[in-house]
Write a structure and sequence with these properties.
heterodimer, A: about 325 residues, alpha/beta, Rossmann fold, 5-stranded parallel beta sheet, two-stranded antiparallel ribbon, globular, B: about 475 residues, Chloramphenicol Acetyltransferase, 3 domains, 7-stranded mixed beta sheet, elongated
Chain lengths: ~325, ~475
């Protein structure tokens, strides 16, 4: 089992803490009406940090989950980039003001452009991995989606094709147990999704997605298998969605507040990761990140909106 | 000349592009060892191997989705969906993803994929093997849709699609695959996307068609030619984006539109084409659409399928109705403004030295002559003749630049492909019209007609002489004339 080195643990903590700081800042701004849309990632952060650290930067590819902010920060997205995306400015390197927040994508960072309908990027990720096989460049594609998305034919068809052709990719289900307001038991009849791996003829790994060390180990194993040419893996990463689905959701209609408060003590990836680093380091990083998130938000909000004359640009080459 | 069928032309384009560009990969159901259900990919598996010619599971969604991913990664996927009827499972990836990727990323990413599919009825395939789907996809900005009808276009458009930097849906009419044979250029051959072709020239009506309906329309036009009706048939070739220029130029000439398609009529592409013509104001009579009635599917029963699909006989009948249609009241009024046979005309002709490029010169000369003869720049009424203070020359340069009808005098000049001499008509509301014939060896005939109720015959002669003087004062004299 490959565990994080002490310096990787510090890197992991920085990303987890920064993602949380940005998340909280965006939530408050969206609720205050300063921006259109927030998509919280709190509870999911360790999953993305785990695979992003296991990926080869600039070589491997990510078809991200829309709660993959922490992974993107590890791969090199800056707080200002995140806030440009949040404020939907034309200078946003993800979607240039054409898509709302959380539709990530960056050619420079090897992050495939993310769409709205979930999980259409599963097959895009499979195509990307197929490209790696044809180009023989040794790269691996990580494809991340939710347990809601996993119920769609898209996910099934994609995993099937990847397994048939032994494509160099890793499927990671961020299994938080909710599809907006619909609970796990109304979405699928099993406790977890890892057993599906066997049905496709690929190995499956069940992991606690709130434990960044365990997540890194699982992702490392799967990515190396893919890189060896032994095909895809399905990782079932359990986590908790601490916040509503988006800033347009009201989870008080369907979630038990007391249960959530209990989970914040036991399953918060940021709280758990604090035990991996020095307490003074963690406090210092948290303070720096709070300031960075605030500065990035103020700066991005001041950036100009789009010029209406550009709306047809890039419809075609 | 070498002749191929449409399916052979498709196969040739695929093989040549795969040989030319290693990034081209072919994927779909049965495209490998079987060579495709219609044999479009026959021979490719043996020649290029299983890595580049890939049999896919029977799952249209992932065929399209994987193509999107391959294209984003820089490959050139050419996917096949066996029948257009099955394409709807792939629609989310075509319309929701491929069409938007370049735009939604501000040009950072692109999706150069091709999806080929066989559409069209007429072979007893029933509701799930006969549909036309172009209207769904031509409605998606960001996606290009081509529909070749001839073997040459099947090769040239597919080649263009594979080389295009954006996603292209190639709709191949399955009845053309083996029924249509024709010359196909060997080697590198590209038909540009977005360009229609005039399949047959005519002056009485324009038919817009594609696929098998192009061939049915040509047959109908042939029949009508023997009855003295000239039908122009335009092969659209690209359904999105439309070649507005070619369509409108034809309609400016014929003024009558018939759209023929196999798709059902309501919200079919014919609706957009009729709207395009209506908004451009190029029709003299209401257009006609020959299309399938709004049946939920194409029936397999011989009698029923034949009853709902357009064919050369129903197209011919529609064209006969179209050509016989009386212009609407608005058109008749417009024609009345352009021509009044009750105006008694006097005319005069003079030969003038004139350069090839002379429009500006002629307008200036006409203004000068009209100021000297204000009766030629007037409006006649029995109650009195109103001479206008300003000279407003209304230029009539033929179909691309018709007269506005708002001037005080008209100058007609149809350029180098026109005749030497013709007497123009005076437009109601004006008293004179001047026509310049084709310039030959630096000379042209200038004919002037006037409303004889306002202008004496002798004054017409003086008026054109004034025009000649004004023009020639500015025209460098012909060298041999100076010597002579």
């Amino acid at each position: 089992m490959t565990l994080l080195t002490p310096s990787q643990r510090e890197t992991a903590y920085r990303a987890l803490s920064l993602a949380r700081a940005l998340d909280e800042r965006m939530w408050r701004l969206a609720r205050a009406g300063r921006a259109h849309f927030a998509v919280p990632c709190s509870g999911h952060e360790a999953i993305g940090v785990g695979y992003a650290l296991a990926m080869r930067a600039g070589v491997d590819w990510l078809a991200p989950h829309y709660r993959d902010l922490a992974a993107l920060l590890v791969l090199g997205m800056t707080p200002r980039d995140v806030m440009l995306c949040f404020f939907s400015r034309p200078s946003d390197p993800n979607a240039h003001g054409r898509q709302p927040y959380a539709h990530f994508g960056s050619r420079a960072l090897h992050v495939l452009s993310q769409q709205g309908p979930q999980p259409n990027h599963c097959s895009h990720g499979v195509g990307c991995a197929w490209g790696s096989k044809l180009l023989r460049d040794g790269s691996v594609t990580v494809i991340a989606f939710g347990d809601g998305g996993a119920q769609k034919g898209e996910a099934h068809e994609s995993m099937n094709v990847a397994a048939v052709h032994k494509l160099p990719c890793v499927f990671v289900v961020h299994r938080n147990g909710w599809t907006q307001s619909v609970a796990r038991e109304d979405q699928y009849a099993t406790e977890t999704l890892v057993a599906r791996a066997e049905g496709y003829g690929m190995p499956g790994i069940a992991v606690d997605g709130t434990d960044v060390d365990a997540m890194y180990a699982a992702a490392s194993e799967a990515i190396e298998r893919a890189r060896r040419g032994d095909g895809p893996t399905l990782i079932d990463a359990a986590c908790v969605r601490f916040m509503p689905n988006t800033s347009n959701d009201d989870d008080s209609r369907y979630r038990d507040r007391a249960e959530l408060d209990e989970l914040r003590v036991t399953r918060d990836p940021l709280v758990r990761a604090r035990s991996l680093v020095d307490a003074g380091f963690a406090d210092r990083v948290d303070a720096e990140n709070a300031t960075a998130a605030e500065e990035a938000a103020e700066w991005a909000e001041a950036q100009p909106l789009g010029d209406p004359s550009t709306v047809m640009d890039h419809a075609y080459a | 000349m070498r002749e191929l069928t449409v399916i052979e032309a498709v196969r040739e384009a695929l093989a040549e592009e795969m040989a030319r560009d290693e990034r081209v990969v072919v994927l779909g159901e049965d495209v490998g060892k079987l060579g495709g259900v219609f044999r479009a990919t026959e021979g490719l598996f043996d020649r290029f191997g299983a890595e580049r010619v890939v049999d896919m599971p029977m799952a249209e969604t992932v065929i399209a989705g994987v193509s999107v991913g391959l294209a984003m990664r820089g490959m050139r996927p050419v996917a096949e969906i066996q029948f257009a009827d099955f394409i709807h499972a792939a629609m989310d990836h075509l319309v929701g993803e491929a069409a938007k990727i370049r735009w939604r990323t501000g040009g950072d990413w692109s999706c150069p994929m091709v999806l080929r599919t066989a559409y069209g009825g007429g072979f007893r395939g029933g509701p799930y093997h006969s549909q036309s789907v172009e209207a769904f996809y031509a409605h998606a900005p960001g996606l290009k849709v081509v529909a070749p009808s001839t073997p040459a276009d099947a090769k040239g458009l597919l080649t263009a699609a594979i080389r295009d930097p954006d996603p292209v849906l190639v709709l191949e009419h399955k009845r053309t695959y083996r029924a249509i044979r024709g010359h196909v250029p060997e080697g590198d051959y590209v038909v540009p996307i977005g360009k229609a072709a005039i399949a047959r020239e005519g002056r009485d009506a324009t038919v817009l068609a594609w696929g098998m309906m192009l061939h049915e329309s040509l047959a109908a036009a042939e029949t009508l030619a023997s009855e003295g009706v000239g039908v122009e048939v335009i092969d659209l070739r690209t359904l999105a984006p439309l070649d507005r220029e070619t369509i409108l130029a034809s309609l400016a000439k014929t003024r009558r539109l018939c759209v023929v398609h196999e798709d059902t009529i309501t919200m079919g592409l014919g609706a957009e084409l009729c709207a395009l013509a209506a908004e451009a104001g190029v029709l003299d009579v209401p257009p006609v659409r020959v299309a399938m009635p709004d049946v939920p599917g194409i029936p397999v029963d011989d009698n029923l399928e034949d009853a709902v699909l357009p064919n050369r006989a129903t197209i011919r009948d529609a064209l006969v109705r179209l050509v016989a249609r009386e212009p609407s009241r608005a058109v008749r009024d417009a024609e009345a403004r352009a021509y009044d046979p009750a105006i008694p005309q006097a005319s005069s002709v003079i030969e003038v030295e004139l350069p090839e490029e002379h429009t500006r010169l002629a307008v200036d000369a006409l203004v000068e002559a009209a100021r000297a003869f204000p009766r030629c720049n007037a409006t006649f009424a029995w109650t009195g003749i109103v001479e206008h203070d300003d000279v407003v020359v209304d230029l009539d340069l033929g179909p691309p630049v018709p007269p506005s009808g708002r001037g005080t005098i008209t100058l007609i000049d149809y350029g180098p492909s026109s005749s030497d001499l013709a007497i123009p008509f005076v437009r109601p509301g004006q008293t004179a019209a001047v026509r310049i014939g084709t310039v030959r060896d630096g000379r042209a005939y200038v004919a002037c007609a006037v409303d004889h109720r306002a202008v004496d015959g002798a004054d017409v002669g003086r008026f054109v002489a004034a025009f000649k003087t004004a023009v020639e004062r500015s025209t460098p004299r012909h060298p041999e004339l100076v010597e002579g």
